[in-house]
Design goal:
alpha+beta, 3 helices, 3-stranded antiparallel beta sheet
Length: 115
C-alpha cells in the first residue's frame, strides 16, 4: 500500500502530432489524445471517448473539455472554481487562462445550452 501518490500530465507536440502522456504512481506511462484525471474522471473520460474527434478546432476542443468537466463535477463550473490552460500546436507555448478568459470559454458552452 502506498500512502501517497502523484499522477502527472505531459503534453508533447512534435511533427507526428500532439499527445498527452500520463504517469501513474507506479511509474507506468501511457499516451492519449484526450484524458481526464481526478474525482469524476470516469464520467469525464466516457464523455471524451464518445465526443472526441481528431479534427476539432481550438474552440471545439475547449468546448469539449469544458463539457466533459461540466458532466463530471457536482457544481456548475464558474470562473472562480475553474482553472484552464492550453498549449497550441502552432506556437507550442503554455498559456494559463485568466478568470476573464475562463468566463469567455464557459460562456461558449452556456450559450449553446440555452439555444
Amino acid at each position: 500500500m502506498r500512502p501517497f501518490g502523484c499522477a502527472l500530465f505531459f503534453i508533447a507536440i512534435d511533427p507526428a502530432g500532439t499527445q498527452i502522456y500520463t504517469t501513474s504512481p507506479s511509474g507506468i506511462y501511457r499516451a492519449f489524445k484526450a484524458y481526464a484525471l481526478g474525482s469524476g474522471e470516469a464520467t469525464a473520460r466516457d464523455y471524451l471517448k464518445e465526443n472526441y474527434k481528431e479534427d476539432l478546432s481550438f474552440d471545439e476542443t475547449v468546448k469539449l473539455t469544458l463539457r466533459a468537466l461540466k458532466e463530471s463535477i457536482n457544481e456548475e463550473p464558474t470562473k472562480d472554481n475553474t482553472r484552464f490552460a492550453y498549449v497550441k500546436s502552432e506556437d507550442k507555448k503554455f498559456h494559463m487562462c485568466s478568470k476573464d478568459e475562463v468566463e469567455e470559454f464557459l460562456n461558449l458552452i452556456n450559450e449553446e445550452t440555452k439555444a
